[in-house]
Amino acid sequence: MNRQEFMNRLEFLLRGIPASEREDALAYYNDYFDEAGAENEAQVIQELGSPEAVAANILANVQQETAQQESRNYSNPESDYHESRGWEYESK
Predict the structure, then answer these.
(1) Are the C-beta atoms of residues 30 and 53 closer than 8 Å to each other?
(2) CA 43 → CA 3, 20, 31, 62, distances in Å?
(3) In angstroms, what CA-CA distances link 35 with 8, 17, 32, 89?
(4) Is the pLDDT of residue 81 over 90?
(5) Are 72 and 81 in contact (CB under 8 A)?
(6) Which of 14, 38, 58, 76 could form a disulfide with 22 if both were Cys (CB 3.0 to 4.6 A apart)?
(7) How far apart are CA 34 and CA 6, in angstroms?
(8) Are 52 and 60 spatial neighbours (Cβ–Cβ below 8 Å)?
(9) Alpha-carbon distance 1 to 8, whole Å?
(10) Which pTM does this prediction carry?
């Protein structure tokens, strides 16, 4: 497997996550390959493991982040969470 095959397979495996998350992940791994240099492509693939293993790790992280966000948003139905200001409670 070469870099292009690795990246194509990874992109295919990440098709179920939001486009922004997928683009960020693909950019990260493309940069990783670029920094290692073409002469080290096989070594990078060996270090990373299979595209399936990399995708599984990415998918797990996305699911965890989504769960944490949902937990913050729904832990108190009388409040609104704002990333910049934190929790704000409505007075009733």
Answers:
(1) no
(2) 11, 28, 15, 27
(3) 19, 26, 5, 47
(4) no
(5) yes
(6) 14
(7) 14
(8) no
(9) 11
(10) 0.73
Give the pLDDT score at 25: 96
Residue where the block lists tokens 């108190």 = 76
- For the CA atoms of 24, 2, 39, 54, what is the dihedral angle to 10 degrees? 40
Interaxial angle between packed helices 51-74 and 19-36, expressed in degrees from 0 to 180 and rounded to the nearest 10: 140
Q: What is the DSSP string of the chain?
A: --HHHHHHHHHHHTTTS-HHHHHHHHHHHHHHHHHH-GGGHHHHHHHH--HHHHHHHHHHHHHHHHHHHHHHHHS-TTEEEETTTEEEE---
Contact 46, 35 (CB under 8 A): no
**Torsions phi, psi of 11, nearest 5?**
-60, -45
Please name the amino acid found at residue 58: I
